[in-house]
Design goal:
elongated; alpha+beta; eight-stranded antiparallel sheet; 332 residues
Length: 332
């Protein structure tokens, strides 16, 4: 503000507006020696939008100042709020209620101990989809992208991160990236990476841990049709009758996509209904170990055994394309 005022130069002069014209803004400067000075900004009475009228104290003459030179003075006051939120110290528990209602609880024995644990975590669980350390780093030094003028969050799927009993909580609309904190007024916008922490999956998300070259065959049931893709001794992809497939690159993509498959998030949902015509089935047979079966229901969710999950949209779309391609594939 001070820099803006000191550098703004008039491009002309005109008569000061009449008292009946309301100012756009009133700027009061506290000066040394207990003095004060006021500057009033007005819209140009002739309708020009490229200049503002600046009147010092009660002078009868107004300076014509380019609008762009004073734009910072007219920004919404909310943009002046610090993007760094006050940190909350002494935390030993975090409770994240995801937008779908699933609850994650993280705890540590005492303050200063870095050994955070997820409630229900078993040894050897393996990595989750989201690293809790990223969430904890943000909680320690919370920073938002910007403040908005909205008084309340818009409706939509909301995740809640509680910092413990008698502590504030964060509420985040995961669709819009807008959030609130219960001990602060106003709505802020979070960086996309932080919003993902509120909507993410902290349980192990690994589904298939078979290298592509250890896959013997993939069988697909595509509604009433079915097909199978195998890899022969020469490394070529063939159908169930040993006929070379015309789409070798797509067959390789099928094997690669399924190998190391990871869920985007696990969900609490019933398995696909028996006899649902929209159900799609993929059976993967490795060189060693049991055959794996993945089932996609009509709601777009997948299951493998008793695990229900969602895939990344890009992975799901690619698998559906490959299912349609190889669901009744024949050789060349």
């Amino acid at each position: 503000w001070l820099t803006t005022l000191s550098r703004a130069e008039p491009v002309g002069w005109t008569r000061a507006p009449r008292e009946a014209q309301a100012p756009l803004a009133v700027i009061e400067l506290a000066l040394t020696g207990g003095r004060a000075e006021r500057v009033r900004l007005y819209a140009d009475r002739d309708g020009r939008e490229d200049v503002l009228l600046a009147v010092r104290e009660n002078e009868p003459v107004a300076a014509l100042v380019p609008t762009g030179a004073l734009a910072a003075l007219l920004d919404p006051v909310v943009t002046l709020r610090s993007r760094a939120l006050p940190a909350v110290d002494g935390l030993t528990e975090l409770r994240l209620t995801r937008d779908d209602g699933h609850v994650f609880r993280f705890f540590r024995e005492s303050v200063g101990v870095d050994g955070w644990q997820r409630e229900g975590e078993a040894e050897g669980d393996g990595p989750g989809g989201v690293d809790f350390a990223d969430l904890w780093r943000w909680v320690q030094r919370p920073r938002v992208r910007e403040w908005t003028a909205m008084p309340e969050l818009p409706r939509g799927p909301v995740a809640r991160l509680s910092l413990g009993p008698d502590r504030p909580a964060y509420l985040v609309n995961v669709d819009t990236g807008l959030g609130q904190r219960t001990d602060l007024t106003g709505v802020f916008r979070l960086p996309a990476g932080v919003t993902a922490l509120f909507a993410g999956e902290y349980r192990p998300v690994g589904l298939v841990s078979v290298a592509p070259d250890r896959v013997v065959s993939v069988r697909i049931e595509n509604g009433s049709a079915s097909g199978e893709v195998r890899r022969n001794a020469d490394g070529a992809y063939v159908d169930a009758d040993g006929q070379r497939l015309g789409s070798q690159a797509d067959a390789a993509s099928l094997f690669n996509t399924l190998s190391g498959l990871r869920a985007r998030r696990l969900v609490d949902a019933p398995p696909p209904a028996a006899g649902d015509p929209a159900t799609r089935v993929i059976q993967l047979t490795p060189t060693d170990g049991p055959r794996l079966e993945l089932v996609r229901g009509g709601d777009g969710r997948w299951s493998m055994g008793d695990r229900r999950f969602e895939l990344d949209a890009e992975v799901d779309a690619d698998l559906m394309r490959l299912i349609e391609l190889f669901g009744a594939e024949t050789g060349e």
